[in-house]
Amino acid sequence: MKASLDCIPCLFRQALDSARMFSADPALHERILRDVLGWCKDMDMSKPAPVMGQRIHRRLREITGVEDPYLSAKVHQNRLAMRMLPGLRDILRTGKNRLSLAARLAIAGNIIDMGAAGDTTLSGVRKAVRQAVKEPLIGNFSAFSRAVKKSTSILYVSDNAGEIVFDRLLIEELGPQRVTLAVRGFPVLNDAVMADARAAGLHKIVKVIDNGSDAPGTVLEETSPGFNAVFKNADLVIAKGQGNFETLSESPRPVYFLFKAKCPIIAARAGVKIGAQVLAISAILKKVREQNIR
Amino acid sequence: MKASLDCIPCLFRQALDSARMFSADPALHERILRDVLGWCKDMDMSKPAPVMGQRIHRRLREITGVEDPYLSAKVHQNRLAMRMLPGLRDILRTGKNRLSLAARLAIAGNIIDMGAAGDTTLSGVRKAVRQAVKEPLIGNFSAFSRAVKKSTSILYVSDNAGEIVFDRLLIEELGPQRVTLAVRGFPVLNDAVMADARAAGLHKIVKVIDNGSDAPGTVLEETSPGFNAVFKNADLVIAKGQGNFETLSESPRPVYFLFKAKCPIIAARAGVKIGAQVLAISAILKKVREQNIR
């Protein structure tokens, strides 16, 4: 999904928020902002917005020498979610359709996003959980459910720290023995890396791989050959969060996306309202389905 | 008040909104945005944000050849406010302190802002009126009231179309015979020009002058000698709206500002919460008052 002009003001807002995470020096914030303005002038608008975010974060690391200013936030988010985990398991036990409820709870965890319009507070996360219990999943759940049933290998592309604990519920429901979990290769925003998979105890139940990239999404031109092989060969790919949707919605293979629509542009693209719990499908899958209907 | 780094993403948001008012052509929207990005890189951050807004709108007019895409919106806003005027007069009659209530109602009209975070809908304006009736004016009203009493000449610097109808209530309360009303010299956003003062019937009760400038605020280096003479010599200057506060808060003479704090940066500068009905004073007046207290 290529960036919209509306992404530009939002990316500047995020660049400024991020600059303030990297450093307390207002002179540096100004330098970053002018730097980003300079690039943006000639930016390739056919690329997805997370590619731009990736570039901003690379520059922030380069200028400040700081590797991961989101580390303590991620540790906190994992702890917060781990404390909620027993209660979430109780909720899941009450579900009529456990796969659907587990998917909705995994989406609830997607509120823990330090990129755009997320909410990392306990009350914000609790609100998302209440929504998961009450509100439906928007999308073709029966197609997803069929795809899950017939797959022997599933790649689960995670999104954020904290959220990855919520993902554990869905991964357990899918059956860990057939799941490979992918995390980002390097820190960017509060996106989950290997340490976060470990904090959620996921390394004990599934194979965890990193994608070798520092993009806040999945940019296949940049991810590692190892990741790309799993991505290509898995029977089913499930990708979490807006960044993965933006970067993989036109990918060469079918992908199912689970996310909370937090951005108006992405919500419009997915054909849902802001705040919706979305099960979206990639363009190629949409095409196949339309051909089958004809 | 110099621009904050936080003004940059917001100015881009506004530039994009404005570009869409000027033209329906996405290629033009992109051209404008890249153009603005190019300037901003080397922008003088010591200038107030409305100077940047002025530059964006000049460029939009230059590229599109369109003089005033906000004209029909302004006509609509004046009509909406004129229909509310009898009801507003009824409300004013019930006020214990008519000057304070008239000031609050004039501030309620400041919600009609197409620049930043305004609300031009009937329900939005009605909500602002209910707030004007219920909530206090934040600021030193007794000092303002004293200044009004002892002044024989008052310059009233208006802000937006629609809002200018609400200003009429306060101008009538101040006594039209001693008031000169200033409007912008040229169209920019929905800022009030001579036609809007006429639509509110103000040309029949006060002397109306235009300031000769196309800034969405009052940039004294650019306003006409005629306006500047009135600005310098009036016993009291009252300026409406955030744009006038941003451009005149460090002006060489005392100014009283009346506005609704819609932007978090301006609210913080004025020391109030977002949404507050503010009576602020210029830096020079603040200094005089502090010296008197010592």
Beta content of chain A comes to: 5-15%
- What is the CATH fold-level name of the largest domain in chain A? Rossmann fold
CATH superfamily placement of the largest domain in chain A: Uncharacterised protein PF01937, DUF89, domain 3
pLDDT averaged residue by residue of chain A: 94
Structural class of chain A: alpha/beta
Distance between the termini of chain A: 26 Å
* Largest beta-sheet characterization of chain A: 6 strands, mixed
Rounded to the nearest angstrom, the radius of gyration of chain A is 18 Å
Strands ordered across the widest β-sheet of chain A:
3-2-1-4-5-6
Which spans of chain A of ≥5 residues are poorly predicted at pLDDT below 50? none
CATH class bucket of the largest domain in chain A: Alpha Beta
**Total individual domains of chain A:** 2
SSE ordering of chain A? HHHHHHHEHEHEHEHEHEH
Shape of chain A: globular
CATH architecture grouping of the largest domain in chain A: 3-Layer(aba) Sandwich
Largest interface: A-B, 19 and 19 residues
Give the tally of β-strands of chain A: 6
- Give the quaternary arrangement of the chains: homodimer
